[in-house]
Design goal:
Elements lengths: L10 E3 L11 E6 L9 H13 L3 E7 L8 H20 L3 E6 L9 H6 L2 E7 L6 H11 L4 E4 L17 H15 L22 H6 L5 H4 L3 H5 L16 H15 L3 H4 L12 H5 L5 H11 L29 H24 L22 H9 L11 H5 L6 H13 L4 H14 L3 H15 L6 H10 L22 H7 L3 H7 L2
Helix pairs in contact: 9-12, 12-13, 13-19, 16-17, 16-21, 17-18, 17-19, 18-19
């Protein structure tokens, strides 16, 4: 049996095929954890390579036919490929960054590499098209296919049910988190690994599926423009990749974390972390973020959450669990409770490929997955008169009468993100301006997934569905359009937040 430090709860074998010990290499199919640090999946692949004494081959591929494929999303992923190419080259690992030049051109590449492999290891990410893609691959590859969960501090299958409130999930993870902090991912699993060098890819494979060109990896606009993707959504100003992610994390922890609690809601203060795009694309690990915060707080990561660490913990409370400063506790609440609550919904609440759904009557991306009380109150008010109804095109352009909303959309168009607090208002106004709540959901998903760097993610779906009542409760008084779904207004937002600079920067 393979000796591996990856916890069993993070491992899933996806087919009944055997390990081929006489194969040429171990294949790591990197599809979500697009990094070399704090990566349980890479750690597992390295363990197989050492166990079988075979070289490690890493395939990081980028399709062009996925929904919302654009210059923005492609550029961010390709930035990470450039970083990974440098890191794998230094470790003498054969890394193949493949960017599909035409829809369907990459078909067969995984099979060609798996045909010569001992075992295939891939990432376990429960959202977007990835679960269906892995389910399909599991039926086709001729060797054992393993999925490894490196999404968060908790394994996504640590729970046996879908949680419907943040508090119930918080009570759960506070009870079990210590057990899962015992086994942490290696900071740099490549550092001490002594792997057998890999031979170049067979000429036929390299010719049919060539690696991304140096120009594309270097950020050449012409190379990106040649790809059949949406060029109307330009690259965001921020660069992607693990190297930039690490710098952004260090900057946040040293400069903004101390004032996070008091200033995070104020757009002019610039106290938000800005890390969600890097977490979404796997350029940054939740474990790495958490470790950086713990170091800043002067705490040992291997002792946090243990019964003997000296911290007296109120059950279910948002404050005081870790014994950190109030600002650090507030940030970790977002990193663990809210982020991993979304992963819980998708890991246990969605069907995988053509497999059975483990919970909920509907997929977590479907309107009908909302709580019964929210569905009932929104149905009751679906015929209420809307003050304005805007088309998708008008909303995409930020062409409304509401200056704060226009600024939020302007930030999304320009930066690929929306300030955390204003993202909630952004969704509430779309509900107010749409013919129905169902159509509001469609608009939110389309705008968020097309323009946001952190879209197409369990966490961003949590935010979108929160607008319509998920993870929330009924609120009074009952209002037109909203019913008892929580109401927000631009007028109240303007009174509460510091917005002058933000509006000047982003509003039409």
């Amino acid at each position: 049996m393979i000796s591996s430090s990856v916890p069993e709860l993070r491992l899933r074998t996806r087919n009944a095929m055997p390990v081929r010990e006489a194969g040429d290499h171990v294949l790591y199919w990197m599809i979500a954890n697009r990094r070399t640090r704090h990566n349980f999946a890479l750690e597992r692949a390295i363990a197989w390579s050492l166990e079988l004494d075979r070289p490690l081959v890493v395939l990081e591929a980028l399709r062009c036919g996925y929904r919302w494929a654009s210059d923005r999303l492609h550029r961010f992923v390709i930035d990470g490929m450039a970083d990974n190419a440098r890191r794998f080259a230094a470790a003498d690992v054969l890394y193949h960054p493949y960017v599909e030049p035409a829809e369907g051109a990459g078909k067969g590449l995984l099979g060609a590499l798996a045909a010569r492999a001992c075992v295939v290891v891939t990432d376990d990410y429960p959202c977007f098209f990835l679960p269906r893609m892995v389910a399909s691959a599991a039926r086709q590859v001729p060797v054992r296919l393993e999925q490894v969960d490196s999404n968060g501090l908790l394994p996504v299958r640590a729970a046996d049910r879908v949680f419907t409130t943040a508090r119930s999930f918080r009570i759960f993870w506070q009870r079990v988190i210590a057990d899962h902090l015992v086994a942490l991912p290696a900071v740099d699993p490549l550092k001490k690994a002594r792997l057998r060098p890999a031979a170049p890819l067979p000429r036929a494979i390299a010719r049919r599926w060539p690696a991304a060109s140096p120009a594309l990896l270097a950020g050449d606009p012409a190379a990106l423009a040649a790809l059949p993707i949406d060029h109307a959504v330009p690259p965001a100003p921020c660069r992607g990749g693990p190297e930039t992610a690490g710098k952004e994390l260090a900057r946040f922890v040293s400069e903004r974390l101390p004032r996070y609690l008091d200033e995070r809601d104020h757009p002019d203060a610039g106290a938000a972390s800005g890390l969600s795009p890097y977490l979404h694309f796997g350029h940054l690990a939740a474990h790495e973020v958490f470790a950086a915060v713990a170091r800043r707080e002067g705490l040992r990561l291997d002792r946090l959450g243990r019964p003997d660490d000296g911290v007296k913990r109120p059950s279910g409370s948002r404050e005081g669990f870790w014994g950190m400063s109030p600002s650090a506790e507030a940030f970790v609440e977002q990193l663990v409770t809210w982020r991993e609550l979304g992963f819980n919904a998708f890991a246990l609440g969605a069907s995988e490929g053509d497999g059975p759904r483990l919970a909920w009557k509907r997929e977590p991306t479907e309107y009908e997955s909302l709580p019964d009380w929210a569905l009932a109150t929104l149905k009751k008010h679906e015929r209420d008169r809307r003050p304005r109804v805007y088309s998708l095109e008008a909303l995409a352009a930020g062409a409304t009468y509401d200056r704060i909303w226009n600024a939020s959309q302007g930030e999304l168009l320009r930066e690929g993100r929306i300030h955390n607090y204003l993202r909630m208002l952004w969704g509430k106004k779309i509900l107010e301006w749409s013919p129905s709540a169902r159509e509001a959901l469609e608009v939110m998903v389309e705008l968020n997934n097309r323009y946001a760097l952190d879209g197409r993610d369990p966490n961003s779906y949590s935010g979108i569905f929160w607008v319509l009542g998920r993870y929330d409760r009924a609120w009074g008084p009952e209002r037109e359009i909203f019913g008892t779904v929580r109401y927000m207004s631009s007028e109240n937002t303007a009174r509460k937040l510091h917005l002058k600079e933000y509006l000047a920067r982003y509003a039409r």
